[in-house]
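Methods: example folding runs. The two proteins below were folded one after another, and each record is reproduced exactly as written to the output file, sequence line first and C-alpha cell line second.
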Amino acid sequence: MHAQLQRWDVQAGPELVRLLMRQMCLEPCQPRPDRVALTGQEESAPITDLVRRDFTAPEPGVRLVGDITYVPTWEGWLYLATVIDCCTKEVVGYAIDDNYRTPLTKRAVEHAERAGRIQEGAIFHSDRGSNYTSAEFGGFLESKCIRRSVGRTGICFDNALAESFFGALKNERVNRVVYPSRERARRDIIRYIEFWYNRKRLHSALGYNTPEEIYAAHQEMRLAA
C-alpha cells in the first residue's frame, strides 16, 4: 500500500498508512495455510534440481518455474498451470482446463514459447508431481531444447516462486469471489494475470516495479547493446 501511494506521489509515511488502514478497518489479506496435492509423486527417474531455490535470472527467458493449482466453481474444479519467468516474475505462459493431466502443463509451456518468452537452453523448474516428472513431459521439454529441473518431494520452498504467485492469485482474487461456472472463473483468472499481476501489481522482489516494467527495461538494454 505504501509503495503504491508513493508511485501516485501521495506523501504519507508507513506509520501513517498503517494508522489510516486501522481506522478504516482495512486489513492485508493473508494466505491460507492448507494446500491440497494435485498430483501423485513419481520417484523413478532421478531429475536434478538446477535451481536450488535461486529464483533469480540475469535476463528474461533463461530460468522459468511452473506449477498447477485448482480453483473451485459450482461446476467443479478448474485447474491452472503456469510458467513464470524468474527474472521478471511475469506469468509468461498459462493453460486452464477442467483436468490436470500432462497436456495441461505442456500447453502452458507452449503458450510461453509462442509469446517468445523462452530462450533455447532455458531451465524449466517444477515440483516433483507426476505431470512434471513423466517421460511424456520430459520428452516434450527436450524437443523444445529446455532443461528440466525439479525440487524435492513435499518441499514447497523448492518451488517458492510458483507458490507465491498462487498465493497472490487466491488471496487477491479467487478467495474473494464465487464462480458459478468454469468459464466465468477462466475469464476472471485471465484478467487477473494479464491486466493486474503482469502489468500493474508492484513486486517487492522487483524493487516495487511491475513485471512488465522489468521486461521492458531488459528489452531496452538488449536493443542498446
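Second run, written to the same file directly after the first:
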Amino acid sequence: MNLALWIATGLLAAVALVGGITKAFVPKEKLAAHEGGRWTRDAGAGFVKTLGFLEILAAAGLILPAVLDIAPVIVPVTAVCWILLMIGAMITHGRFGQYNLVVLNAVYLALAAFIAWGRFALEPFTS
C-alpha cells in the first residue's frame, strides 16, 4: 500500500507542478487561447498566477515533508487542500460545459482522496 500511495503522490505532484508552472509563468492571454484555459478570460492575471503558485506549493507539500521527514502530516493535509481545489475546478469547468475536464479533475480529486485516506488512516508516516 505504501508503494501505491507513493506512486499516486508522485503522479499528483507532477500534475500540480506542471499546472502550477503553466499558470504562474505563461501569460494569461496565451492560456485563454486554449480550450481548457477558457476560464482565465474572466479571471484576473493575479488570480491565475496565485493559483499557479498554490499548485507549485501543493507539489512541494505532497513530496517534501515525507522525503525530508519534517512534519510529514502535511502530505495528507495538502491532499485535502487539493480536493478542495479540484471541487472548484470542477465547478468552473462545468459552468463552461467542459465536461471532459470535469472528469479529469474528478480523477485528480480521487487521487488526492486516496492519498489523504491512505496517509491519515492506512499508512501514516511515523517518526
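Comment on the second run: The chain has one domain: 2-122.
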